[in-house]
Each structure stands twice: as C-alpha cells, then as structure tokens.
Design goal:
Blueprint: E1 4-9, H1 16-20, E2 25-27, E3 33-35, E4 38-39, H2 48-58, E5 62-66, H3 78-96, E6 102-108, H4 113-123, E7 131-136, H5 149-157, E8 161-166, H6 179-182, H7 184-198, H8 201-204, E9 209-212, H9 219-231, H10 244-247, E10 252-254, H11 260-270, E11 275-276, H12 331-336, H13 339-342, E12 347-349, H14 363-370, H15 374-377, E13 405-407
Parallel strand pairs: 1-5, 5-6, 6-7, 7-8, 8-9, 9-10, 10-11
Antiparallel strand pairs: 2-3, 3-4, 12-13
Length: 408
C-alpha cells in the first residue's frame, strides 16, 4: 500500500490575466507571486517536480498538497475573498496538473462562512480534489460559530476530510523571536481544536474527518486540563456529547513535532492509528523525512516505529483523506483517501532512508536535484512572508523516526 505525506505545500499557478483582476496581487521578476506587497516564497513552492524528487528520495508514493498560509489572505472582504479563493484553487489545480502523485486540497475561507460554503459547493463535484483545507485560527471565525453549521453539515454528509493548518497568529506579542511561528502556530491549532471540542462540533459530525498538523500543536499537552475543566463544571462549559479525552481521539494528527517525546504523547492522546505522515515540505520548520520523528524508547511508552514486545506505537502511521463515501471524490481520490485507510485496515511497510541506498541524500541534495534550492535561486526575507515562511538555508534532516509501518 502507498505511503502518503499528508502535509506538503505548493503555490498556485495563476495566470497574469487573472492576477490583473485581483487587487493586491502581482508577479515579480523571478516568477514568484507578490501578495499585498509581500513576496510569497520560497521558490520551491513553484516547482512541483521538487516535491516529486523528495517523494522519491524518501520512498514515499504520493503527497497531499495545500497552499501555505501566505496565500490565505484572510484580511480580504467577502467578495474579494471569494474571487481570490476561486483563483487560488483553480491555480493549485494547474500547479499539480500532470503530476499524478500530487493530490490537492481545496482551500476554504473560514473567516467568511458563506463564501466557504459556496466554494465547497463549487469544488465538491470536481474529481481532482482529494479534500479541503482551511485556516486554524488566524482570522477564521470560531469553529463553534453557528454560521459554520451548514459547512460542517455538508462535510459530515459527504464524509469529507478537512486539514486545518494554522493561520497567522494575531497576537502582537509574538512579533519578536519568530514566535508567530514557534509559539503561534501550535497555539492557533489548539484554539481551533478547542472550538471543535467544546462547541461539540466534532462529536456531532462523526462523518467529517479533521486532520491537525504539527502533531496537534499544544493540544496533547493540555487535553487533561480540558477534561478537568469539564469534570469540575467550570463556567462557560456546556454539556458535551463526548468528554474531551474521548472526542480528541476523533482527530488525526501528523507526526511533525521535532521531539520524540511529543510524538509519544500524541500517540497516548489520539491513538497510534490517528498519526499520519507530514513533512511540511518545503519549509525549514518541517522535515525532509517525516518517518524519522520517532517516539522515545522508555518503559511504559509505545515507541513510534518500534515492533514486537515494545509495541507498535506510531508504526501505524497513516496517510489520510476523504472517505470512499464522499459523493464527489474521484476514483483516484477515493483510492488514496478512503475510509478503510482511515479506519486502520491493512499495513504496508515504508523504507527508511538508509534502506533506500543513499543515506547521504540530505535536504540540500534533495532540493538541488529538484532545481529549486534557495542557495541557487536566492533567499526570501523572513519579513516578506506571512507565517509559514522560508529562510536562507534548508534544515538538516530530523534524526527521529516516524518511519516503520503504515496502517490504512
């Protein structure tokens, strides 16, 4: 069975004529989009062949692709947001066209619930989409807001998967020390998850599958506090269909934590069958082999990637997507992201980098092979990017291990 990276990014391919009709957008001399005065990079985002080289080097079969936060543009008013979202999604389809190993997610602007629902209705019958994605936090309205009820009902009815990626944190205290990313991203994910949990959205829409990136953000560390708040009847909390500790096990999370102990905690919080592979390609805050982020080996802990008497841990890492019952999924999309895989049936082993015969295949080599290394194309300044940004150098490989098995 195939190995799928659930958390990768590409930029949309938007033609100049369309850009001319979209205020605040243009293209620079290097071919990168400039959005609201900020260059939306890194250059790797515009090279899908680089993503395919990464898949080859890590022994993965396919990638699920979403636009990164600099392209969310959540400040737009409703009519402008609708026009931008349409161009964005059409452009992502063009970017992956002819690259059969790359399956896109359609972006939905949750800051404008009516626009989000209209865009979902527009794309739902297009067989090229593998699912949908949206901003966790940022300028999205509360995910418990009744204004989103029709969207959740539609995703539940269609049994769609939605990947929530943190938007730009709005707390000005995070402006220093890269904290908007280092602290803001995991916090925004936890806020979005809390809204789905305490708003009883997740439990009441069991057909909707929600994927959280960055190993669930801070959620694994604080769900016990949520549970205690419910048990002690804290003010503002309403009765829930399922208690927090139970309902969070409906989430899927990727294994991108940069800390084996956090992967272990995620296994205990969500269940080993709820961890999926995610690299955050091509950003420096990601990893160039998501299987190498393993749980710590210690008594009482199930180690990710271990076998036998030590337990399977995240050896059951999955690729995830919308189920076969989705009304509009393509045959290929259904094959990639069907419910049997989400339910954890079947196991396929994915090789580690050492088993691929080239342990020296570093991120720099991967990107050079793709012809998209920042060292050759020029770096994008941090201040020119909106959240999930690029810096000059590619990171070194994480030396953890999310590798071993794949359960679908």
């Amino acid at each position: 069975m195939p190995g799928i990276d659930l958390h990768t990014h590409l930029a949309p391919d938007i033609d100049d004529r369309t850009l001319g009709d979209l205020p605040g957008t243009k293209r620079d001399d290097d071919g990168l989009l400039v959005l609201d005065g900020h260059r939306a990079g890194p250059p790797s985002l515009y090279h899908p062949e680089g993503l395919e080289v990464y898949l080859d080097a890590t022994g993965l079969d396919e990638a699920i692709v979403a636009v990164p936060p600099p392209f969310f543009r959540q400040h737009l008013v409703p009519h402008a947001a609708s026009a931008w979202t349409r161009a964005l999604n059409d452009g992502l389809l063009r970017r992956v066209s002819g690259h059969d190993r790359l399956s896109p997610l359609a972006y939905l602007p949750l800051e404008h619930p009516d626009a989000a629902l209209r865009e979902y209705e527009r794309v739902r019958d297009d067989p090229r989409w593998a699912g949908v994605t949206a901003s966790a936090g940022g300028r999205s309205i509360s995910l418990a807001d009744p204004a989103l009820a029709r969207l959740w009902e539609a995703l539940d009815r269609d049994e769609r998967t939605i990947l929530l990626h943190p938007g730009a944190a709005r707390d000005q205290r995070l402006a220093l020390f890269y904290l908007a990313n280092l602290l803001g991203n995991p916090a925004e994910t936890a806020v979005a998850a809390a809204e789905l949990v305490f708003g009883d959205v997740l439990a009441r829409h069991p057909g909707m599958r929600v994927v959280l990136v960055h190993c669930g953000g801070t959620l694994p560390a604080i769900v016990g506090r949520w549970q205690h708040g419910v048990e002690t009847h804290r003010p503002g909390l309403k009765p829930l269909t399922e208690p927090p500790r139970q309902v969070v096990r409906r989430f899927y999370v990727d294994c991108l934590a940069h800390d084996p102990a956090v992967v272990d905690l995620a296994i205990n919080t969500f269940g080993a069958d709820r961890l999926v592979l995610g690299s955050d390609w091509p950003f420096p805050m990601g990893t160039f082999d998501p299987r190498r982020s393993r749980g710590a080996s210690r008594p009482g802990t199930r180690r990710a990637g271990s076998h036998g008497e030590r337990g399977s841990g995240a050896g059951t890492l999955q690729g995830v997507g919308p189920p076969e019952a989705v009304r509009t999924g393509s045959p290929r999309g259904k094959e990639l992201l069907g419910p049997d895989r989400l339910a954890g049936t079947g196991v396929a082993r994915a090789p580690s980098l050492s088993q691929l015969g080239d342990e020296e295949q570093t991120p720099a080599a991967l990107v050079e092979d793709a012809g998209a290394a920042q060292s050759r194309t020029g770096a994008t300044a941090v201040e020119n990017l909106a959240d999930e940004d690029a810096v000059v150098d590619q990171p070194q490989l994480d030396r953890g291990d999310c590798r071993s098995g794949w359960r679908w």
